[in-house]
Amino acid sequence: MTAGPIALASDALLDLCSAAGDAIFSEYRSSRADEFRAKADDSPLTRADMASHRILLEGLRRLAPEVPILSEESPPEAVVDRRSWERLWVVDPLDGTKEFLGRTGEFTINIALVDRQRPVLGVLYLPLERVAWLGVPGEGAWCCVPEGDGWVRRPVSTADQGGHGAAGAVDGIVVLASRRHRNDRLERVIAFLEAEAGPVQRCNSGSALKFVQLAAGQGDVYPRFSPCSEWDVAAGQALLEGAGGAVLGLDGQPLRYNARATLLSPHFLAVADPARPLWRALLAEL
Ligand SMILES: Nc1ncnc2c1ncn2[C@@H]1O[C@H](COP(=O)(O)O)[C@@H](OP(=O)(O)O)[C@H]1O
Ligand SMILES: [Mg+2]
């Protein structure tokens, strides 16, 4: 018997994020913060990525010894059996390594629990702010800040504040996008939204922060047509679903994880309000 997502969404999980976040923060402040080496795919790997990976690996094993771990930094031999894992942690110990090196501060720790290909728990931790965003689909989403020996959890919803998200009180659309990727398809989406729904405000940020913004009601859509991997998306999907949103593949279905030979994520639309007919119309255009 393994613990369910609500039991695993514990203060112990948040404490673990905090410990890994502190290790990242201390590397960020160190004189060696600009050091990196290139991985096989030519993406950068810093001391902070590996410090966080080691802490999370050890901590998640302690928290749920029976659940295997797929981390961005796991060596291939550690995850060779992954397709046979029904339940697993999908972890990005430092999402936004280029943002870390570029000193924008826009990086996160992403931890998802995936059960039969669906994300059932997700946490995005912001090391500089020391805030965790936690989502359990079907249960809710919370912004969590440490207080005393524990955590204060404030419920969040895509319908919150700002007039964006599901509230839709402001004319036009807020589109969230990566700082580092541009492509024609994204430009076509923006043109479509301008024609169908009024002025588009584009808001760029690094890493999984875009999911946090959607969950907090600070954006309407995050279209992703540039490459990323399952560990960049799974925890964000759990957070967003818990907050009332969705992450849809171009077939209109929620993304699934650990289901294919590749770990690259399919293109997707992450949306604050899945009931809005605009997204079906957009998907039909793509
Ligand atoms: N060519 C590529 N292939 C796979 N993933 C890529 C990629 N280029 C960028 N990414 C992913 O995009 C993430 C950054 O997202 P964004 O562009 O929204 O800030 C990176 O996270 P990491 O920093 O964890 O590697 C990386 O995983
Ligand atoms: Mg990473």
Word description of this protein:
- The protein has two domains: 151 residues, Fructose-1,6-Bisphosphatase, subunit A, domain 1 (Fructose-1,6-Bisphosphatase, Chain A, domain 1), CATH 3.30.540.10; 121 residues, D-Maltodextrin-Binding Protein, domain 2.
- It contains eight helices and 14 strands.
- A seven-stranded mixed beta sheet has the order 3-4-5-6-7-8-9, with helices on both faces.
- Helix 2 runs antiparallel to helix 3.
- The chain starts with a helix and ends with a helix.
- It binds adenosine-3'-5'-diphosphate and magnesium ion (MG).
Task: Please summarize what this structure is.
The protein is of the alpha+beta class. 31% of the residues lie in helices and 27% in strands.
The CATH class of the largest domain is identified as: Alpha Beta
- Rounded mean pLDDT is 95
Cα distance spanning the termini = 43 Å
Structural class computed from helices and strand pairing:
alpha+beta
The total of beta strands comes to 14
What fold name goes in the CATH topology slot of the largest domain?
Answer: Fructose-1,6-Bisphosphatase, Chain A, domain 1
- Biggest sheet descriptor: 7 strands, mixed
In the CATH hierarchy, what is the architecture of the largest domain at level 2? Answer: 2-Layer Sandwich
What's the helix-strand series? HHEEHEEHEEEEEEHEHEHEEH
Radius of gyration: 18 Å
Order of strands, widest sheet: 3-4-5-6-7-8-9
What's the name of the CATH homologous superfamily of the largest domain? Fructose-1,6-Bisphosphatase, subunit A, domain 1
Separate helix tally: 8
Binding site for Mg(2+) 1: 72, 92, 94-95, 232
Protein name: 3'(2'),5'-bisphosphate nucleotidase CysQ
EC number: 3.1.3.7
Organism: Pseudohaliea rubra DSM 19751
